[in-house]
């Protein structure tokens, strides 16, 4: 297991889940033999600074394994480089060796080998057959109905998980903070200026923080490191088409749920909303497949949905249901998924996602109402950030003030993102050991408690009782009939504190209290996001924003006492929006979530959106949103919405990879086996009209995936024994092994001397998307992204392969 702390685990799923070696049955009759001579493995060429590399993984191929690549008789193909370093590209092994295409693709060269998902449906003969059969069976209609049912199930189950997490967090936090308040009452002499002694409550507080945090961090670190953080960058990458190992497994869900409970109860500066997206995504991926690979249980339902393309849509629905359940905000949840997570959407998907979100909130309402003993199912706790009783009003002269708050949010957010990235880079370099990661989480938890205690100890902020909406106010160092306003901020979950800042009446805090709280929480949240614990960044960001928003209103009111429009709750809300916009860089969904969770009128949408957009624009000037920053830092090959500016003016021939490892339409099983063994590519053009073994000069007639080839070898789908397997082989044969395709190591080495033929006609995708070498890169990028492709074939006018392009070729840094 990789020990390095990364946002997304780098090791390959197949390698971990390696199946035992399965012998493949060898038919009696050999068809053609393969070259016996082995040459040296090709050395890798790299430029002096290591930035340039041989395209793809061809350097691993043995000369005799892939004769077409090496026996290149014509003149070497022109070397097209982006950085013009063609001179270093030659890789001399023997005279007939081709010159490999060399480009500076640092992302590909220096980063982990993330694989892509197959969002393009492989419409091969088997698939077409199934479609024809299903047309007769009116399957499409049934499939659509089932799809709706699955989305409804996703909504319900996600909400049930959210309720469980919610209730456990609520109960445990209540127990914890009540115990601490009692311990304060028992141990601290009231109103005693000389005997202010917080030591015993402090020790209890430390203990009650580090125990859950250590437990959660240990689970995340040792059991499932992919659950660290909010999960949103991972889900976003997945929805973009990047395969993130173990992201949607049941084990991941379990660790995530426990992780988020322990972190929030432990008092870390984080919230549950990000993990809820992830939880929803796992639920969706699990339900929609009708089987559990972890428990080796196939329920034999929903088989038609067992591919990446279908699963992607469900995962999006699950994510939306998760956010909706976390905030009690169905439309905000759906928009959050669309704005932040989704890379592909269409009208039907939006509908289904909305239904999953609404069902999720409805279920949440029923369960929480029942839990709180309400018969009319009107649990107000669904307004997570507290409902504003009075309609929030604003005057038009306030709009520039909201804009200034937005700019402040943008600046603070950009600074937060940059500081957080620096802290995480430091972590990556200097805290690589697992136990150290757990200790680090504990230290940050202790730091939080210590800073809170210091604030409580040194800031004397007593307020009259009755002014405070918190359920159990703490008297600590205050007179009778007073409560300690600093303790009130700290002795509850971050979500409850946001609620307080929005709704506490004017005069609930000193300026110093809020100023210190803002600084402390800003730094704490920055140090927390990136720890090996499951936590979201939404709530702490909103909390910091609410604190400084309220603070600004108080300071301005102090300076201009006649400015009665300065309602602190209103400015706390705008501050939260601005800070969220500055860190997350979302606008539409955030404003809707804030509206739904606080019950404000649509007329207040305008101020919110002004603050959010100003924050986003200012923040975007400096850096990217925190989720995109994390994705970048971890070198995930995410395709942006638009092609990168560097690609303007370039053509396909300048980014393609060649020579291309191809497979003949009827090729020997032995050759295929060797190719799969020696190179890591996941797609191979299928060619016919091949002269000798020069496959890369053949005419393109399709593309075949690595996973399909492995299944063909494992199941011995050879021409020679066709009569045995043909009647039983269907598209289901391939779906059965989805999503954990066996690796090539599962196939026992074929005897060198015997070869059998594989006819790829019925397995390959006969209509891969092809482009011309002279097509512009921005255009082919649009095609690649819009269709969710994994491989794009570049062909010349004679339909012969000129090169291949994958998502890595579009990542230019
Ligand atoms: P993905 O990683 O997106 O799932 P892949 O594994 O097929 O797809 P990579 O191995 O990541 O592709 O590709 C790495 C580099 O190799 C890219 O520059 C790509 O253009 C190139 N490449 C991909 N397939 C082939 C192939 N069959 N022959 C030669 N080069 C290839």
Model description:
By secondary structure, this protein is mostly helical. Among the domains are: 147-170 and 226-371, Clc chloride channel, CATH 1.10.3080; 656-810, CBS-domain. It is 50% helix and 6% strand. Strands 9-11-12 form a 3-stranded mixed β-sheet. The longest helix is centred in the N-terminal third of the chain and has 49 residues, at 139-187.
What is shown here, in short?
The chain is mainly alpha-helical and 813 residues long.
Q: List ligands, each type once.
A: adenosine-5'-triphosphate
Number of helices: 27
CATH class of the domain at 147-170 and 226-371 equals Mainly Alpha
Q: Please give the share of residues in helix.
A: 40-55%
Q: Runs with pLDDT <50, length 5+? A: 1-110
- Corresponding CATH superfamily of the domain at 147-170 and 226-371: Clc chloride channel
CATH architecture identity of the domain at 147-170 and 226-371: Orthogonal Bundle
Write the layout of secondary structure elements.
Layout: H1 13-16, E1 52-54, H2 67-70, E2 102-104, H3 106-110, E3 115-116, H4 125-136, H5 139-187, H6 199-223, H7 232-240, E4 242-243, H8 250-266, H9 273-289, E5 291-292, E6 297-298, H10 308-327, H11 330-341, H12 347-371, H13 399-430, H14 434-458, E7 462-464, E8 482-484, H15 485-490, H16 494-503, H17 511-528, H18 538-559, H19 568-584, H20 588-598, H21 605-622, H22 626-633, E9 663-664, E10 666-668, H23 669-678, E11 683-688, E12 699-705, H24 706-714, H25 722-725, H26 731-735, E13 757-759, E14 770-771, H27 777-786, E15 792-795, E16 801-805
Parallel strand pairs: 9-11, 14-15
Antiparallel strand pairs: 1-2, 3-4, 5-6, 7-8, 10-13, 11-12, 15-16
This protein binds adenosine-5'-triphosphate (ATP).
């Amino acid at each position: 297991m990789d020990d390095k702390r990364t946002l997304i685990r780098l090791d390959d799923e197949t390698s971990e889940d390696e199946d035992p070696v399965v012998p493949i049955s060898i038919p009696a009759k050999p068809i053609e033999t393969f070259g016996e001579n082995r040459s040296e493995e090709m050395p890798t060429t790299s430029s002096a600074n290591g930035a340039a590399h041989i395209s793809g993984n061809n350097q691993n191929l043995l000369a005799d394994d892939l004769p077409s690549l090496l026996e290149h008789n014509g003149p070497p193909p022109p070397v097209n480089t982006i950085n013009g370093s063609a001179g270093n590209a030659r890789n001399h092994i023997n005279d007939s060796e081709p010159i490999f295409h060399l480009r500076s693709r640092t992302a590909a060269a220096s980063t982990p080998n993330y694989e892509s998902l197959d969002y393009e449906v492989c419409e091969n003969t088997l698939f077409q057959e199934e479609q024809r059969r299903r047309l007769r069976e009116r399957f499409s209609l049934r499939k659509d109905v089932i799809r709706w049912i699955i989305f409804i199930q996703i909504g319900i189950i996600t909400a049930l998980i959210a309720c469980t997490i919610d209730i456990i967090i609520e109960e445990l936090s209540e127990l914890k903070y009540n115990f601490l308040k009692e311990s304060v009452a028992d141990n601290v002499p009231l109103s005693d200026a000389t005997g202010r002694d917080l030591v015993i409550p402090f020790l209890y507080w430390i203990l009650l923080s580090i125990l859950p945090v250590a437990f959660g961090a240990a689970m995340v670190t040792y059991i499932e490191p992919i659950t660290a953080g909010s999960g949103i960058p991972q889900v976003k990458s997945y929805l973009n088409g990047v395969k993130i190992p173990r992201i949607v497994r049941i084990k991941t869900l379990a660790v995530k749920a426990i992780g988020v409970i322990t972190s929030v109860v432990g008092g870390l500066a984080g919230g549950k909303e990000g993990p809820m997206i992830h939880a929803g995504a796992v639920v969706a991926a699990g339900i929609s497949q009708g089987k559990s690979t972890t428990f080796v249980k196939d329920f034999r339902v929903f088989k038609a949905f067992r591919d990446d393309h279908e699963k992607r849509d469900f995962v999006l629905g699950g994510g939306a249901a998760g956010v909706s359940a976390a905030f009690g905000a169905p439309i905000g949840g759906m928009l959050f998924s669309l704005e932040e997570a989704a890379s592909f959407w269409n009208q039907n998907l939006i509908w289904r996602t909305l239904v999953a979100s609404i069902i999720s909130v409805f279920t949440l309402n029923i369960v929480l109402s029942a839990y709180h003993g309400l018969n009319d199912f009107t649990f107000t706790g669904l307004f997570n950030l507290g409902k504003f009783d009075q309609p929030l009003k604003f005057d038009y002269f306030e709009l520039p003030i909201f804009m200034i708050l937005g700019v402040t949010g943008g600046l603070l957010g950009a600074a937060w993102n940059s500081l957080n990235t620096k802290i995480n880079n430091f972590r990556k370099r200097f805290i690589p050991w697992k136990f150290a990661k757990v200790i680090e989480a504990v230290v940050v938890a202790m730091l939080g408690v210590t800073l809170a205690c210091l604030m409580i100890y040194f800031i004397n902020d007593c307020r009259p009782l009755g002014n405070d909406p918190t359920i159990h106010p703490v008297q600590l160092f205050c007179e009778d009939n007073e409560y300690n306003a600093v303790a009130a901020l700290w002795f509850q979950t971050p979500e409850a504190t946001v609620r307080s800042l929005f709704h506490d009446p004017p005069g609930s805090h000193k300026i110093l209290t809020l100023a210190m709280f803002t600084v402390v929480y800003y730094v704490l949240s920055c140090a927390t996001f990136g720890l090996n614990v499951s936590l979201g960044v939404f709530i702490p960001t909103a909390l910091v924003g609410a604190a400084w928003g309220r603070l600004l209103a108080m300071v301005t009111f102090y300076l201009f006492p006649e400015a009665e429009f300065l309602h602190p709750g209103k400015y706390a809300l705008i501050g939260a929006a601005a800070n969220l916009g500055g860190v997350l860089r979302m606008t539409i969904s955030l404003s809707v979530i804030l509206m739904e969770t606080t019950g404000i009128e649509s007329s207040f949408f305008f101020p919110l959106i002004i603050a959010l957009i100003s924050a986003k624009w200012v923040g975007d000037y400096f850096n990217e949103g925190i989720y995109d920053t994390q994705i970048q830092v971890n070198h995930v090959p995410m395709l942006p919405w638009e092609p990168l500016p560097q690609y303007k003016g370039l053509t396909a021939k300048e980014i393609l990879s060649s020579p291309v490892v191809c497979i003949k339409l009827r090729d020997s099983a032995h050759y295929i086996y060797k190719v799969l063994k020696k190179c890591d590519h996941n797609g191979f053009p299928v060619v016919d009209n091949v002269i000798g073994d020069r496959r890369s000069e053949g005419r393109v007639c399709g593309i075949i995936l690595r996973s399909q080839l492995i299944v063909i070898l494992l199941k011995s789908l050879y021409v020679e024994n066709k009569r045995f397997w043909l009647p039983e082989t269907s598209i289901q044969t391939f779906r059965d092994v989805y999503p954990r395709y066996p690796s090539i190591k599962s196939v026992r080495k074929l005897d060198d001397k015997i070869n059998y033929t594989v006819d790829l006609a019925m397995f390959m995708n006969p209509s891969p998307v092809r482009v011309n070498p002279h097509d512009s890169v921005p255009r082919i990028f649009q095609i690649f992204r819009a269709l969710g492709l994994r491989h794009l074939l570049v062909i010349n006018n004679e339909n012969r392969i000129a090169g291949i392009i994958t998502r890595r070729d579009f990542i230019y840094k």
